[in-house]
Structure formats: C-alpha cells, structure tokens
Amino acid sequence: MESTMNELGNAASVLDIDPKTAVGGGVEDVYGEDFATEDQLITPWTVSVASGYSLLRDPRHNKGLAFTEKERDAHYLSGLLPPVVLSQQLQEKKLMNSIRQYQLPIQKYMAMMELEERNERLFYKLLIDNVEELLPVVYTPTVGEACQKYGSIFRRPQGLYISLKEKGRVLDVLKNWPERSIQVIVVTDGERILGLGDLGCQGMGIPVGKLSLYTALGGIRPSACLPITIDVGTNNEKLLNDEFYIGLKQRRATGQEYSELLHEFMSAVKQCYGEKVLIQFEDFANHNAFELLAKYRTSHLVFNDDIQGTASVVLSGVVSALKVLGGSLADHKFLFLGAGEAGTGIAELIALEMSKRTNTPLEECRKRIYLVDSKGLIVKSRFESLQHFKQPWAHDHEPVKTLLEAVNALKPTVLIGASGMGKTFTKEVVEAMSSFNERPLIMALSNPTSQAECTAEEAYSWSKGKAIFASGSPFDPVEYEGKVFVPGQGNNAYIFPGFGLGVVMSGAIRVHDDMLLAASEALAEQVTDAEYEKGLIYPPFSKIRKISAEIAAKVAAKAYELGLASRLPRPANLVKYAESCMYSPVYRNYR
Ligand SMILES: NC(=O)C1=CN([C@@H]2O[C@H](COP(=O)(O)OP(=O)(O)OC[C@H]3O[C@@H](n4cnc5c(N)ncnc54)[C@H](OP(=O)(O)O)[C@@H]3O)[C@@H](O)[C@H]2O)C=CC1
Ligand SMILES: CC(=O)C(=O)O
Ligand SMILES: [Mg+2]
Predict the structure, then answer these.
(1) To 5 degrees, how large is the angle CA 304–CA 305–CA 306?
(2) Which ligand 2 atom is at minimum distance from the Cα of 282?
(3) Does the Cβ of 417 fall within 6 Å of ligand 1?
(4) What is the pTM of this model?
(5) Annotated active-site residue in 109, 124, 139, 560
(6) Which residues pair with 370 in a beta bridge?
(7) Which is nearest to 245 in space by CA: 197, 203, 275, 297?
(8) Among 149, 271, 371, 390, which is least packed by CB within 10 angstroms?
(9) Which residues are the active-site ones (predicted)?
C-alpha cells in the first residue's frame, strides 16, 4: 500500500496536483484509480453507503416512480426520484404508449430490453398483459433481426457465454452467474438460429428470448432462468470478417473438441445446479442436435425444443384441425418440406400418436408420412446416403425431385413446411393442395417471417379461402372475398413454457415422449368451439397463462404416472398447483 501511495505521490507531483485533494472537484483518489498509469492494476471497488441509488439500479427490485413515499423514506430514495408516485398500471400505460411510437420492430425490441435491464417486474407486466402485441417483438420474428445485430445491441450480460477458451474451467464460469437456484437453462451453440443459419455467438438473443417466455407465459421465476451460449466458433464468413463480431473468430470446432466442451458443460450444470435443472437445447444444427439429445436424455433432464417442442405443438394443431377436416389422424396423409429437426421430430410424434390411437405398429404409421428435403422426396433408393434421422422415412416410392411433383404424386391432406426456406409453397403447390382437398391443412412453420414457406395472404388467396393455415411467425388476419381469415401461429412457444413448468413443479427427473403427447393434448383441449368457427386450430396467445397451467398439469400428471416425478406427495389439484407456482410480476411492497 505504502509503495502505491508513493507511486501515486510521484505521479501527482509530476502533474503538480495535491494527491489528497486531487481529481477535478477535490475528491480524494483513495483507490488510485485516477492516478494509476494504464499498465498498473487497480481494484474495481464499489462503495456501499446508505443510499437507495443502488436499489434504483437493481432491475430485480427497482420500481422506478412507483416507490411509495414510505418506501422512499425507508430506502434512502428521497431526492433521487422526482416527487410524483405512479402506479404500476400507469407506468405500463406510459411505456406502451412510448413503445407504440417506434416505427421499427428492432427499436421496440431494444426498448423492451432496456426496460428489462431497468425494471424486471414492469418488463414482465407489459409482456404478460400485452402478449399478442409484444410476442412478435421479444420473440419471432424480431428476435431474428436482433440476433443478426446482437453485437451492436449487446449492453449488459443477459446470460452466460461459454467458449472454447473456457474449456477445463466451465464450472468456474457457471459460478460467475449471480443466481444459484436455477430451474431452467436454455442453451444454444448458435449454428441454426431460426431459419437464418449460423450466427455464432450472436445467437444469444434466442436463449434470452425463450427464457423471457418461460417467465411471461409459463410463470418460471426470472431468477431461476439461465440463458447460455456455447461459442465454438462460427462458419459464417461475414461474422468472421466483421471487426465488431463479439464471438470467437475461428471456424467451428467439431468432433472430439466439440463434444468434450459440451460434455464438460453438461457435467458442470449438474454439479452446480443439481439433477433437476431442465436443460433446453435450442437452435443447434441437426448434426449435433439429435446426437446431443440421444446422448443426454438418459442421464440428464433435457429437452430439445426444435425437435420435441415443435412436434408437440404441431401434433396439437393437427388434432384440432381434425374437427374441421374430419376423419381420424390415421385417415390423413402428411407431406413435409424439410426433413431436419422440426420435420422429422413432428413426423415421429404424429406417427407415435397414430400408433397409440390405432394400436398399429409405429413403422406402419410412418408410411402415412412423407418428407421432402433439399434433394427431393425421401425414398428407399436414397437410404444409404441419408442421415440417420431421415432413414425411418425412406419409403418405397420412385424418386421425386420437387415439392410440386411430390404433392401431385402423393395427394397429401396436410402439408407442413419446416425447411427454413421462404417462398417454397408456391402458387402451384397451394393450388394443387386445394384441387384434391376440400380443406387442405397448410402449415408454414419456418421462422422468421422472411423464411415462411408462404404468407397467410398467399395461402388463403391461392386456395380461394379453402386452406386452414398456421405459421411459425405471426401473420395478421387476411380479408379474402369479403371474409376475414385469422391465421394460427404454430410455434413451440405454446408448449415449452407450460411443459417446463410441469417438469419443474413435479420435480421430474427425465423427459418422456408421453409427456410431449400430454402437452399436445392439453393444448388442443384449449381451443373453443367459437375459435374453431373462426378457422383457428390454436387458442389465442392472450389465454396463454391459463393454457400453460393446463399443459403443466397434464405434463406433471404424466410424470407422476410414469414414476418420473420426485416432488411428493402429488398435489391433488395439479392445475391449481400450477397456477399457484406461477411468478406474478406485480410489485412487492418493501418494508
Ligand atoms: N414454428 C416453430 O415452432 C418452429 C419452426 N422451426 C423452423 O423450421 C425451420 C427448420 O428448422 P430445423 O428443422 O431445425 O432445420 P434443419 O436444418 O434441421 O432442417 C431443414 C430441412 O429443410 C431442408 N431444406 C432446406 N432447403 C430446402 C429446400 N429448398 N427444399 C427442400 N428442403 C429444403 C433441409 O434439407 P437437407 O436435409 O437436404 O439439407 C433439411 O432437411 C427453421 O426455419 C426454423 O425456424 C423450427 C423449430 C420450431
Ligand atoms: C421457434 C423455434 O424454435 C425456431 O424457429 O427455431
Ligand atoms: Mg428453435
């Protein structure tokens, strides 16, 4: 210390300043921060005094102008805020007014992120009360643009970055996160961000967005949510050449290097947070996604949202649509564009449900389902060259090159797009679907909006109002020949928040396919007759908290039935229990 003071003294005398009263304003430089040369180490002290300033800067507890007079007195806030006291409702109204004034969705996104950093409860109050308006802002499609620009949007840590540089000390990195009671982790490696491809480290926007939905839609406490991005490099040339890129500037690690980091991560999570933290894999490329799920599903509580969550939501939409289409699941023929995580995941769950309903072997049920990938229809003659997850779908059929030819050859009743490739459901494809179906079910699931296989407007006008349509990203209602058509949103956001709540509240130790079927059934049951009449196959997102409680209850019930639940005794009324577990963003009163 003495030598530091001497050095300081020397530095000060060189500058001809009294070290005791130095730095414009006469504040003593106790910690040597101002006089230290650039290469001297300093300690980042933060001084704690009896002032409410830090309370105002703490997003978890800050209430801004809603602090009451009594709270302002008790917590040293007097003078730090203007005199007015606003209710949370008025704060909400004011913020919604200001968010609505932004023209660009990305500006609204940034305003929401700033709010979350400033006042967490108000952020969630806005999101819950205005879910249909704000979901497209914090989630798809805007979150896609946010990821593309994440480098310049990054302000403060919203989650953990675990890069190859941390190999060997991942546990220490996890310990840097300020919360200990973690219940849900959403993790990505950024290689398949929506339908936008490899965005490397900038994929962080996805776990952040997904977890904000875990809280807003599923009621998981924000402090129990941990977004993580694993950075193993990127193969995106644009990012590699961008001087402002925030991630590792190297090509993606693969093979042993990749799996060792992932394994260290999976082990460290268990060590740090215990067995019962739900790890949701999100937006990994399919060559890793299937393998990771298969490897860890028997040892960890894992769930792949793109494979399993999507499957559950789409099966639910198809089952709902049967009310309009008629027939049973097994009476329909399914054609997919896209045979990756989403495509084959959905296909497998539909086949499983069909098999259970009809008591028919799974292999037989798979024969009602066809998939087209970038090389054409998946058929037997391609078997040897197919990735393992496509092989169960290699049916006896002559090779078919294009989607249109496949539609004409197979005459499916249901067409599902999960290709990540926009504009692939052409006018000819939709017209063909409508020529042999009274009511074709068309789902354009790819995100964000730019990657949707077709728009709602195209689906309704090209089918002359016959199509039942749902899309991954939202579309506005469409007026066609004097009738208003309301498109549904077939997005896993309906499922994962309630699913996660069910897993957490029952203390489930593993995810079982029957729990996905239970979630799917719970969602389908929430569509009312009035909604069916409007052509909807999903209930509106405005009811999502109630829907999530129903999903959670069914998922938990299944976990108890399968002997996978560890929270005992089982609550008698699981819906009520789910509701009682849900986080509410209403302000708390401070003593
Ligand atoms: N609505 C929702 O809730 C969800 C939507 N999605 C969306 O689905 C899309 C795909 O995701 P995912 O399955 O994980 O991605 P994958 O990369 O695993 O799969 C994409 C599939 O699409 C195929 N494909 C790509 N281009 C074409 C083309 N021009 N014609 C025919 N097939 C094509 C690929 O073929 P090949 O195998 O030959 O390369 C591959 O089989 C993304 O846009 C994603 O946003 C995903 C999850 C949930
Ligand atoms: C919705 C989603 O998970 C996706 O598009 O990847
Ligand atoms: Mg995803």
Answers:
(1) 95
(2) 3
(3) no
(4) 0.93
(5) 139
(6) 335
(7) 203
(8) 271
(9) 139 (proton donor), 210 (proton acceptor)
Residue 320 has pLDDT above 60, yes or no: yes
Report how far residue 282's alpha carbon sits from residue 224's, in angstroms, rounded to the nearest whole number: 18
The CA distance from 232 to 170, in Å, is 13
Question: Quick one: which atom of ligand 2 is closest to the CA of 305?
Answer: 3
Nearest Cα residue to 288 out of 267, 273, 268, 266: 266
Q: Is 210 a residue of the active site?
A: yes
Spatial distance between the Cα atoms of 318 and 77, rounded to a whole number of angstroms: 55
Q: What is the pLDDT of residues 51-60, one digit of tens each?
A: 789 999 999 9
- Please indicate if the annotation marks 491 as binding a ligand: yes
Concerning whether 124 is annotated as a catalytic residue, the answer is no
- pLDDT at 116 > cutoff 50: yes
Q: How far is the CA of 194 from the centre of ligand 2 (A)?
A: 5
579 is in an annotated binding site: no
Range of weakest confidence among 24-33, 180-189, 267-276:
24-33
Distance CA 136, CA 106 (A): 10
Amino acid (one-letter) located at 528:
T
pLDDT band at 154 (very low <50, low <70, confident <90, very high): confident
ipTM: 0.99
Q: Closest Cα to residue 133, out of 187, 95, 85, 183?
A: 95
pLDDT digits (tens, 9 = 90+) for 397-438: 999 999 999 999 999 999 999 999 999 999 999 999 999 999
Dist CA 502 CA 551 (whole Å)? 7
Rounded distance, CA 433 to CA 163, Å? 47
E strands present in 492-581: none
Tell me, what amino acid is at 379?
V
